[in-house]
Amino acid sequence: MSEAREQHLDELREIVAEVLEVEPEEITETGSFAEEHEADSLRAIEILARIEKKYKIDIPQSELPQMENLKAVYDVVAQQAGWQD
Questions:
Q1: In this structure, are residues 14 and 51 in contact, taking their beta carbons and an 8 Å threshold?
Q2: Where exactly are the structural domains of the chain?
Q3: Per-residue pLDDT tens over the stretch 28-73
Q4: Class of residue 58 by CB neighbours under 10 A (exposed 0-12, middle 13-18, buried 19+)
Q5: DSSP letters spanning 8-54
Q6: Residue 56 per-residue DSSP state
Q7: In terms of CATH, what superfamily is 1-79?
Q8: How does pLDDT run across 25-34, given as a tens digit for each residue?
Q9: HSE-up of 66 (CA within 13 Å, CB side)?
Q10: How far apart are CA 62 and CA 9, in angstroms?
Q11: 34 with 68: CB under 8 angstroms?
Q12: Is the whole-model pTM more than 0.90?
């Protein structure tokens, strides 16, 4: 895994953990936010808003259903932000 990808994943993990009110270590790459952390659609929107603000990008709301775990969030953000990690 590249250093840039690792750093981006860590940043996204921090955002998700803050919104879901859990420790960052509890957020795994493939763990479902809804199933493991009882995230609802409001929390998902909050995560989306914080990511958009941090990286100054727009993520279509239609992407929300796919953003169910850290890896999926990373994939969507990487695509929207043009990361070549």
A1: no
A2: 1-79
A3: 999 999 999 999 999 999 999 999 999 999 999 999 999 999 999 9
A4: exposed
A5: HHHHHHHHHHHHHTS-GGG--SS--HHHHH---HHHHHHHHHHHHHH
A6: T
A7: ACP-like (1.10.1200.10)
A8: 999 999 999 9
A9: 12
A10: 22
A11: yes
A12: yes
